[in-house]
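Assemble and predict.
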Amino acid sequence: QKEVEQNSGPLSVPEGAIASLNCTYSDRGSQSFFWYRQYSGKSPELIMSIYSNGDKEDGRFTAQLNKASQYVSLLIRDSQPSDSATYLCAVFRAGTYKYIFGTGTRLKVLA
Amino acid sequence: SQTIHQWPATLVQPVGSPLSLECTVEGTSNPNLYWYRQAAGRGLQLLFYSVGIGQISSEVPQNLSASRPQDRQFILSSKKLLLSDSGFYLCAWRKAGTDSGNTIYFGEGSWLTVV
């Protein structure tokens, strides 16, 4: 079992729709969770971080965390073609210096 | 504000040649520093991290090495490159400590093609 798992996609959604990206992790001691967006050929850029169970909203983005289910998700409302990218889920391992990344989900927003 | 730079941005190297990628961070002191590799269509693989000058932790046994000669400088090296070393190399930093709230930030990346 991978430490951080994501569906590789591609996930295709029409412009204006909600895109839902999911991530599961195996280490119950994980404390903080991050979503990064990576455009083709570029380095990852931080979208959101979340540390507590529940929802966290920032503009069109909402991160959801459920530690009991070891599940974190990212919702993108009013999806735009410019949101087309690979979305990486990352987990910070408690008591270490390590960030473990999933393989990413490729999102395509169709105009 | 803090910035991170890495270079070169792109390089093509023959098999068996040496490698040196350099990364520097500005605007902070004693950062935690990281090297990740991303092979084509793959996720980010943690290669090395450092919590201080001269302190290097290796995550994957391979023909790569890392050094931290100065507080905000992190270097990735190889004496003899393999074809499998091709990929996108990313340097990253975070504020010092194991505080789970610290975010990791990436440099622009270096594309390495071994031929």
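The first strand of chain A starts at residue 4 and ends at 5.
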